[in-house]
TrEMBL record:
This is LacI family transcriptional regulator. SMART domains: HTH_LACI. Residues 3-57 form the HTH lacI-type domain. SUPFAM superfamilies: lambda repressor-like DNA-binding domains, Periplasmic binding protein-like I. Pfam families: LacI, Peripla_BP_1. Keywords: DNA-binding, Transcription, Transcription regulation. It comes from Cohnella phaseoli. It comes from the Bacteria. GO terms for molecular function: DNA-binding transcription factor activity; transcription cis-regulatory region binding.
Amino acid sequence: MTVTIKDVAKAAGVSPSTVSRVISEHPRISAETSRKVKKIMEELGYHPNLMAKSLVSRTTRTIAVIFPKPAEELLLNFFFYELIRGVLAQLTRAGYDLLMAGGSNEQEELDTVARLVKGGRIDGLILLYSRSSDPIIHFLRKENIPFTLIGRSLDYVDVPSVDNDNVQAAYDATKHLIAQGQKRIGFVSGPTKLAMTQDRMNGYTKALAEAGLPFKQSWVVEGEFLIESGYRAMASIMSQPEPPTALVVIDDVVAFGVLKGLSELGIRVPQDVAIVSFNNIALSELTIPPISSVDVGTYQLGYTASQMVLNLMKDIEITTRQIIPHRLVVRESSLRAESDLY
């Protein structure tokens, strides 16, 4: 037999309205009464109807994470598992659920966000990327929906965001290769519409310019955050008459493809080509050779983003842009003996 709110009220010796207030965490309910009612609820096996509760409170206690690509493609990259782990840790602690959604293109993503917002299915959102002229950010600002961005908005400086200093991170990665004696350094890029890609490209070119080293467009290859992108990039970049002897790679998973492509071409890492990439996922130290990688604090990015959106929903003042520190983890893939250099 289904336990009702009246059963709980009778067993606890309170009115049904008091039980409702306990469920909705009404501030006028004493801690003692709340503990007593919740104990009875647990003993009787009573579970509140969350849909009915949300109709009354006009909240869903659900936060959405919007994927910028189809989930089956995005979740091939281990970076996102660690990011979601950070998001979920904070939301669970605060008593919120996580809804993950996305689309196969920009219009589908916007349609998804509009459906969730207009349908009252979520209380806030976390965006995982920002593009130039991003219609989703424009829509959310217009609808006045609490949201945070993991990354940097190219169009609005006041968007609540948590990010790394990607210019400095790529600068540090490139400077490390320069310190190893490298002079011909290429860049395996992500989609150029993304703010993160643009920032890392700027850090890379800044380091080259400061060192007086050449920048060649033919040494830059754009791709996606997939193993296949890194693999395909090697066929074009290494077939040049004067290919680079070192590569800054946008992402560890892309670097896995780079390693595979170089191996099939008979090119040794790090003896012939040195590699530094980003994110420092767990598998990066298990490759042969282990990959030098910039640790961007992936878990902390997710945790902080969810904390920010929860604070926005409660009208708690936040720092609009929070920067998570990065650090370069040096491994075998970027270390070369002086005698190995061209």
